[in-house]
Amino acid sequence: MFGSRALVLSTLLATLLAAVLVPPPAQAKPRPGLPPVNPYAGPVGSSTMHGDPASSDTTRYRGPGPGARATTRTLLSVCPTILAGKDGYIQALCTEYLDRAPTLNIIDPTTLRTVARKHLTAGSLLGGVYAYLDHRDRLVTVDGSGRVLFLEHRRAGSTGRTMTITEAAAIDLKPAFTRACGAADCDAVTTVAPGYNGLVWFATAQGRAGYADPRTRKVALRVLGRGEQVANSISTSPAGMAVVTDHATYLVKANRNRAGRPGAVKQVWRRAYDRGPARKPGQLSHGSGATPTFFGPRTGREYVAITDNARPREHLVVYRAASGRTVCKTPILGRANSGTENSAIALRNQVYVASTYGYPYPATPDGAGEAVPAKADFVGGMQRLTLSGKGRKKTCRVRWTNTVASAAVPKLSVAENVIYTVERLAQGSRWDLVRIDPARGRVLSRTTIGRGPTADTLQMVGTFLPDGTLLQGTVTGLVAVRPAPAG
Asked: Would you say residue 399 has pLDDT above 90?
């Protein structure tokens, strides 16, 4: 999910997309093993919650390093989605305390001053959480109005110190839902992601996959599985869109014809996984807590990885993206901490997972079901696994295990070759940004970034900026962790 999501307590009412997209910029030359560059997405590493459309949870920027300095920005809202576009401005999509509605905050990256705000229509419980930046720096999201929105920010006035946020375009999803299930509000979009052929993909709470085409405004839907639900984010690659329901993993696609018009949503493959007998403590749904992750040593998209919900120990499950064939299935973590709500880091042939078993979320989504056991201690723990072998004979082997009590979705800085996460210490009385050696799992350095319950990072995702700043959402706003001054 938050590891996907931090406070996603339910799904939000749908809506998708907007106005005609301009031709995308030329696609950057791919580098072996790195996620493929999506020409319809914003900067690689900061355009989606998980860094890129493949949900690799990697960044090509360096992090703040040892001796970093933390600055807190209080927004009186929970901020699970913090993105940054080509212009450098921070776009934080936060959930308001009072009405649980999403609000887009445009924040100056230097002063952390909010230069523009737009309050969106509330949807189910928490409103819009998943969003992305397109190649024009527009935030694409869904709110409770039943539309997908393209939100654009521009400088206002002669001084340029303030900005305005406007609705550049929108596509109404309500007619498509009415046709699919009888009423405009019979289902709700949980997540959106950019397709590699210009489509805007989405998944719904009631187990549907769909897209909106910004060129034609066509909306298409497909039921993934009767009685299945989607509680996590989705991922895209040139092969299509990967989505995990509470029962199975799917790959779907929709090809354009010679006239440039997309067809129906087609299911390429479906693979059921072990969903276990019940929701585990520290997870927000009964089933996988993972956003699917594309990765691979050559193209960065040969495989798709998830974690299941098996007992007593969950598994890392790796599929071949083209066929859905299971490449490996390996137990992860230990009997006392084998559960995760977070997306895995995956790069080339390495996968890193973090335990959220027993994490004390303040609430759970409607319909999540009782946890079994009802409560458990949050002890944390992380693991590195390596995919190895030739041809069809491959294995996923554990290379290290540590005891870091990760309270945020870990991210790997490729430039620095360091994993960053936030550690919850002393039962939530202290929160440290920790740097971890991906080769051995040992902690390289730590920086205290907050104290007490208001600094809770709630398993949310951090975002890196080109200058090495790490932006981390909290239950009251965000923290900017900057590199130590030179000299």
From this structure: yes
Domain ranges within the chain, ordered by starting residue: 58-482
Query: Which residue is it, tokens 């072996």?
Result: 32
User: Per the CATH hierarchy, to which homologous superfamily does domain 58-482 belong?
Assistant: Quinoprotein alcohol dehydrogenase-like superfamily (2.140.10.10)
Locus of tokens 């303030």 = 162
Tell me what pLDDT residue 27 has.
Answer: 39
The pLDDT score that the predictor gives to residue 485 is 87
**Above 60 in pLDDT, residue 367?**
yes
Rg of the chain taking only CA atoms, in angstroms: 20
pLDDT at 124 over 70: no
